[in-house]
From TrEMBL:
<dbReference type="InterPro" id="IPR011576">
    <property type="entry name" value="Pyridox_Oxase_N"/>
</dbReference>
<dbReference type="InterPro" id="IPR052019">
    <property type="entry name" value="F420H2_bilvrd_red/Heme_oxyg"/>
</dbReference>
<protein>
    <recommendedName>
        <fullName>Pyridoxamine 5'-phosphate oxidase N-terminal domain-containing protein</fullName>
    </recommendedName>
</protein>
<dbReference type="InterPro" id="IPR012349">
    <property type="entry name" value="Split_barrel_FMN-bd"/>
</dbReference>
<keyword id="KW-0560">Oxidoreductase</keyword>
<feature type="domain" description="Pyridoxamine 5'-phosphate oxidase N-terminal">
    <location>
        <begin position="11"/>
        <end position="120"/>
    </location>
</feature>
<dbReference type="Pfam" id="PF01243">
    <property type="entry name" value="PNPOx_N"/>
</dbReference>
Length: 185
C-alpha cells in the first residue's frame, strides 16, 4: 500500500488480514468500580469482527457480562523488530462484547480458530463445546464500534480513526488521526 493513502476497501482488507494472521490481542474490560483490566487473549477474526474464547469463571468473562463495553489491541511486529519498522501495523478497537449462545455460531468460531491457529487442531480444547448454559467454555463476539488503524506500510506513523457499522461488519467512516487529534487540542 505504499504511495497514496489506502481506500476504505483496502483498510478493510488490511484489518481483516491482521485479525486472521495475528493470534494474540490484549483485551481490556471494566470492573464494577470502573477500573480497567487487561488480559492477553487469542483472537479469531471473521472479517472485522473478533472472537475471543474464555471460561465462565474468569474475571474478564464476569466483567464482559456486567459491562459489554470493551477494547482490544492487536499488532504485527516483524521478527526483525525495529529494523523492519516499515512493516508494523496495529489495530485498537472499542467495541461491544456479546456472549455467543447459538450452537451453529459456536461451532463456526471453533472452526475459524482451528483454521487460524494450527496448534488448536492438535489439542482437545474445542472437542466438546457446548452452549454457555451447558458448559464452562465461552466465546464472545466483539463487534467493533470505533478504532484506530496504524499501518507503517503506507508511511511511517500513518494512522486513521475508523467507525464501524452493520454490527461491526463494515467501515462507515475513516478520518485522519492527526487532523482529528489536532482539532481537539
Amino acid at each position: 500500500m505504499p504511495g497514496t493513502d489506502p481506500s476504505v476497501a483496502e483498510i478493510h482488507e488490511a484489518i481483516t488480514e491482521l485479525l486472521r494472521t495475528e493470534e494474540l490481542a490484549t483485551l481490556a474490560t471494566v470492573d464494577s468500580e470502573g477500573r480497567p483490566s487487561a488480559s492477553p487473549m487469542h483472537i479469531a477474526g471473521d472479517g472485522l469482527v473478533g472472537y475471543l474464547h474464555t471460561f465462565r469463571h474468569t474475571r474478564k468473562s464476569t466483567q464482559m457480562r456486567q459491562n459489554p463495553n470493551v477494547s482490544y489491541s492487536v499488532c504485527h511486529v516483524p521478527a526483525e523488530g525495529y529494523a523492519a519498522r516499515w512493516e508494523t501495523r496495529s489495530l485498537q478497537i472499542q467495541g461491544i462484547a456479546t456472549l455467543v449462545t447459538d450452537p451453529v455460531e459456536i461451532q463456526r468460531i471453533a472452526e475459524l480458530s482451528q483454521e487460524q491457529f494450527p496448534w488448536a487442531r492438535d489439542v482437545s480444547l474445542y472437542d466438546n463445546l457446548r452452549t454457555p448454559d451447558q458448559g464452562q467454555q465461552l466465546f464472545y463476539r466483539i463487534e467493533p464500534v470505533q478504532g484506530l488503524w496504524a499501518d507503517n506500510r503506507v508511511r511511517m506513523l500513518y494512522r486513521v480513526l475508523v467507525d464501524f457499522g452493520d454490527g461491526g461488519k463494515t467501515i462507515t467512516k475513516v478520518e485522519d488521526y492527526n487532523a482529528v487529534v489536532r482539532g481537539r487540542a
